[in-house]
């Protein structure tokens, strides 16, 4: 099994809005991996542990979304910019059709892209983070801790948020804390995060959605044509398990896999089981 490093896999492509950076590893059908949100997140940090396995069968392309400190910041709301980045990225690489894995926010971006460009997505895998609360209160514990860090970033607030992401606290190592802290407190990256998770911005977004005359994202998932695998940590404190109920029921070709003793980072905390499950799903005719 190959070993991949950050620098050896790093690439970039120029789009009309700015430079998008990404990591590439392996050969085969294209598999695009979309990261989630949160302090110090990058696509590399979300998926570096899975690349060796997936790259044995696929050309893995780990996109770094605008506004998270690696690709150029497009200047808008990070979710909106991420949605625009996916078609620009695929066009820049000349890719017509891909499979997609999306973690949390990346899963929502992947669903949006698959609904609007059904001919360009073969199979789709999501990792938590989609749907809407049915029984659990919102915002969740993890989102509240994320807001608190974004408003007033301290090392302890970062540690508290990191612990909400996992079932096993041993995963929150000093190395993880330090690498997340360095990027999360970068002024430009923090400013972009506040456009998304600052309390005023978050409240404004919720109010806009409440008053909107268009359906919520979870209400249009019946339009998703791509075969979809929903993966979830049973003990997710960021996007509780009940959020999966509407996507599971309304996505026409959805499968649903729950991993025990696992929080929000399924691809990290349930690494081997996640990889087996995803590879089996992607290999289906």
From TrEMBL:
Keywords: Hydrolase. Gene3D superfamilies: alpha/beta hydrolase. GO terms for cellular component: membrane. SUPFAM superfamilies: alpha/beta-Hydrolases (SSF53474). One of its GO terms (molecular function) is hydrolase activity. This is Alpha/beta hydrolase. It comes from Mycolicibacterium confluentis.
């Amino acid at each position: 099994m190959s070993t991949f490093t950050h620098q050896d896999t790093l690439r970039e492509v120029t789009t009309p809005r700015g430079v998008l950076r990404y990591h590439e590893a392996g050969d085969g059908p294209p598999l695009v991996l979309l990261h989630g949100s949160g302090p110090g997140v990058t696509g590399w940090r979300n998926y570096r542990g899975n690349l060796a396995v997936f790259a044995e069968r696929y050309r893995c392309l780990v996109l770094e979304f605008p506004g998270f400190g690696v690709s150029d910041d497009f200047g808008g709301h990070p979710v909106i910019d991420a949605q625009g980045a996916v078609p620009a990225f695929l066009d820049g690489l000349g890719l017509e059709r891909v499979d997609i894995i999306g973690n949390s926010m990346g899963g929502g971006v992947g669903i949006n892209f698959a609904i609007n460009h059904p001919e360009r997505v073969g199979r789709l895998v999501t990792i938590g983070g989609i749907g809407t609360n049915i029984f659990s209160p919102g915002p969740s514990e993890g989102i509240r801790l994320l807001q608190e860090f974004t408003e007033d970033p301290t090392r302890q607030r970062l540690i508290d948020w990191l612990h909400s992401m996992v079932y096993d606290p041993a995963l929150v190592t000093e190395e993880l804390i330090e690498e997340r802290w360095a990027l999360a407190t970068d002024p430009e990256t923090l400013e972009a995060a506040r456009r998304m998770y600052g309390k005023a911005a978050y409240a404004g977004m919720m109010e806009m959605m409440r008053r909107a005359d268009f359906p919520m994202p979870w209400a249009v998932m019946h339009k998703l044509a791509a075969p979809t695998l929903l993966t979830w940590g049973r003990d997710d404190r960021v996007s509780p398990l009940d959020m999966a109920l509407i996507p599971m029921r309304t996505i026409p070709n959805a499968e649903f896999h729950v991993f025990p003793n696992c929080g929000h980072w399924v691809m990290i905390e349930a690494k081997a089981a996640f990889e087996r499950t995803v590879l089996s799903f992607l290999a289906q005719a």
